[in-house]
Specification:
- It is a single chain.
- The chain is mainly alpha-helical and 164 residues long.
- The chain folds into 2 domains: 27-119, Winged helix-like DNA-binding domain superfamily/Winged helix DNA-binding domain (Arc Repressor Mutant, subunit A, Orthogonal Bundle), CATH 1.10.10; 130-164.
- Helices cover 62% and strands 10% of the residues.
- The chain has a 3-stranded antiparallel β-sheet.
- Helix 2 crosses helix 3, helix 2 packs across helix 5 and helix 3 (60-67) packs across helix 4 (71-83).
- The longest helix is centred in the C-terminal third of the chain and has 25 residues, at 131-155.
- The radius of gyration is 19 Å and the shape is elongated.
- The N and C termini lie far apart (48 Å).
Length: 164
């Protein structure tokens, strides 16, 4: 299979922010995937550990919402994390039909390791940018995501306040 990076792109595309963003995302995604794979982890695992580390114990449904993951992806990731004793399940005292997922001490340590992995890959992926440029890029991407998130919420019948 040929490497698409070895071919010139049509000039109609090389100035379009959407195309450049997709190309950049493809490279960065590959780098993140490779680094996480080398650390024997997956992106879903990190997202769940991070959500538990920041927000504390949670139901699987709430974890899915906080991580932007489908229920079946959350279940598979929680199973994998539980098998490795990074998280534990306990019955919800308010509703025995539901489990609460919490981070173990081993899981907190794993989260810290993966934070280091992702910090290193950010440094590698965005090496051409200085600190100010990285901050600007982050702010611009956050603004774009916020705009589209508000639009999606409006289309789903939710009222989302506009930023000024």
């Amino acid at each position: 299979m040929s490497d698409p990076d070895n071919y010139p792109v049509p000039t109609r595309l090389d100035h379009l922010p959407s195309f450049l963003l997709m190309q950049s995302a493809r490279h960065v995604h590959r780098m993140v995937f490779d680094r996480l794979d080398a650390a024997d982890a997956r992106g879903h695992h990190y997202r769940i550990l991070a959500a538990l580390g920041e927000g504390g114990p949670s139901s699987q449904i709430e974890l899915g919402r906080r991580c932007g993951l489908d229920r079946s992806d959350v279940a598979a990731a929680v199973d994998a994390l539980s098998d490795r004793r990074f998280v534990e399940r306990a019955p919800d005292p308010k509703d025995r039909r539901r489990n609460i997922i919490s981070l173990t001490r081993r899981g907190r340590h794993r989260l810290s390791e993966l934070d280091d992995v992702l910090t290193a890959v950010q440094d590698e992926a965005f090496a051409p940018l200085d600190a100010d440029e990285r901050a600007q890029l982050t702010a611009m991407l956050t603004k774009i995501i916020g705009h589209h998130t508000r639009d999606r919420a409006r289309h789903n019948g939710h009222v989302v306040p506009r930023e000024s």
